[in-house]
Structures are given as C-alpha cells and as structure tokens.
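anyone seen this seq b4? input:
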Amino acid sequence: MIPKVILSSGKDQSPRRFHPWIFSGAIKKIKGEVAEGMIVEVVSNHDEPLGIGHYANGSIAVRIFSFQSQEIDQAFWNTRIQKAYQFRKDAGLINNEATNTYRLIHAEGDGLPGLIVDIYADTAVIQSHSTGMHLIKNELVAALKEVYGNTLKAIYDKSADTMPSIPGVEITNKILWGTPESEYVLEHGLKFKIDWEQGQKTGFFIDQRENRKLLQKYSEGKKVLNTFCYSGGFSVYALAAGAQLVHSVDSSKKAIVLTDENVKLNFGETDKHQSFAVDTFNFLEHAEEKYDVIILDPPAFAKHHNVKHNAVQGYKRLNAEAIRRINPGGVIFTFSCSQAVDKYLFHNTIMSAAIQAGREVRILEYMSQPIDHAPSIFHPEGEYLKGIVIKVY
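predicted toks r here
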C-alpha cells in the first residue's frame, strides 16, 4: 500500500477540478511513512480517491500525475510518453524535414508535473524539477526508448541545476544512454548548434520557435537589434528574411560565441551581422545605430510573486528605453517569461512604458508559447510565455 495524503475538509476542490498541485497547508494528515519523491495517493477527508502523485517537502507537497486509481508501473510511463509523442505527431512535429527540435514533455501540460523532455534531432534531454521525477529516470529512459525505437540515439540528463537538493545525493548532468550523432538541429529549415551541457534551459529556447518565424514578416530590409540574444535564434531568422543589418547583444560571452557560430553555420562569413557581449541596458543607452526592429526577450525578471513589483519595473524600464530609441514606424517584439507576471499585467506594463516614453504605440500581434508547450486548461500557471508585437510612431 502506498502512503495516503489526506486533505482537510473543504480542501479537495482543487484536485476535483484536476489542478495537479496539492499545497502543504491543505493536508490534514499523512497515513504511512513518506519521504521526498515517493509516490503517494491523495484522498479527501472522507477517504475518496483524488489522485496519485509525487510527494515533496515543500509548499507544493504533492504533484499529481494521475487522477485515476491505477497501478503505476512501467506500462503507465510508456503510455504517458506515447500520448505526448502522438500529440506532437498530430501537430506535425514528428518526422518533419524542416524542424527536428521540439518539446516532448511539458510538465503539467502532459500530465507529468516536474518533468521536461526536449528533443534535439536524435537526442532527448531530460530535465527534472522534482525529486519524484528524478527517481524514476530509469523508467523514463525505458519509455523513451520504447516510443522512439532506433530513431533515438541518446538520452541526456540535465537536472543538476533544477532539482531540489537531496541530502547525501550528488546530482550530475550526464548521458544516461547512447551517443549523440547529430551536430546541429533544424528549425524551419535553419541550422542551430545546441549546447545542452553548458547552455541555458535544456540548451535552446524551443518555446520561441513560432515567434522567431513571425519575426521574418517584419525583418526584410530592416535594421534589427536582438537583445538578450542567447544563441542568436531571432538573429538567424532576421538574416534569413533579408534584414539589412542585425546586431546581437548579450552580457554572456559564451552566448555571443554561440550566436556567432549559428550565424556562420547558416550564412558563412557575413558583414550583415555584428555581436556585442555587453549589458542590454547599457547598449540601448549608448547605441549610435537607429533600429527598425528590436527584440526584447529578457530572462525571467520574476521567478516568484514576492519580487513581482521589481520585475514589473524592470520590464517597464527596458521597454521604455527601446520605445524611445526605435525609428519612427519601427516594430518591437517584447516578451516576458515570468510566470508571476500574467498577460494582463504585462500588457499594462508595456502601456506604462509607452506613456513614459511619450510616443504613440499600437499593438500589432499577441504571442505565446507554441503547441508543443501547450498548457493544461486546468493548470493556468503553465502559460508562462507572453509577448506583444508593437509598432511605434
């Protein structure tokens, strides 16, 4: 018998609405011995089964991965991975000649809270955000091999920086199985080198794929500034669309090296691109060039609600500076990946920035995350990426 997490009276409404998080304050008592990462059953105060999930010593005490009473064995994980695979296949991301990098598992969106799996050509990169998912990595490897067959060549675990600490256990990033063969990935026919060992996230910001494609509509013949460029994704798309000039800016020298490699991989040596390893705010303040298109894709300014105010001020300052400096008629792609800043707050923040800059601004398009990052309707927290395309007069 697995341990039971019994909820207090009136605290069972959230799992009845299929929200996968059980907060520690909702728990009345626990029947049986539990430890970090164990599989537990969640029941109501009247012993009604509500779900099965991983236990954690934190504010989110249980992450539910099944709302049915069922055996959790290898067949369960195989079925869950297969369902995610079929979803991407139906979306046209499997066996796609132009795009072979995509997200296979989007945590709660795919019913596997605490787990991210990204596919880079023939390699799967696993990133665990909970001890429970980390402890079943062997089952996940077996499931991935079962679903992909011989098309998968390697599985890499990149969980060292995302896992909660486990006393006495050292978590290292490493190959779990196989040997990677592909030197680069394809995204809408463009080539990118992926550094899943040292790079951010799992190695690439796959969630911006369709927004990078959208940028091409606005880039032909334009002078483009890509700030917080990381590996240069937006820069490569702008150059492919025929931009007159592209400047890439990131405070990380490693990011700039990767950007230059990706530009060269697609276009060889080109005088249309120049990169700068400097702080974006300093670059905007001292830039002599005037741009027609600016991309503002900063890292999350707010990872928690208690720093939301500071994050909003950061977004406001950044956008106001870009709005002031862009050419009349210019277009800005502006983003927030801060979960604590919802799309309505982000919209109002950009409006405040426009007021501060004193220029007329119109909204052209709204942006979000792509279909392989689709959130569950029962878990709105999964909709983290929001973006707006604005035109400045």
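The longest strand covers residues 49-55. The chain has ten helices and 20 strands. kinda curious what u guys think
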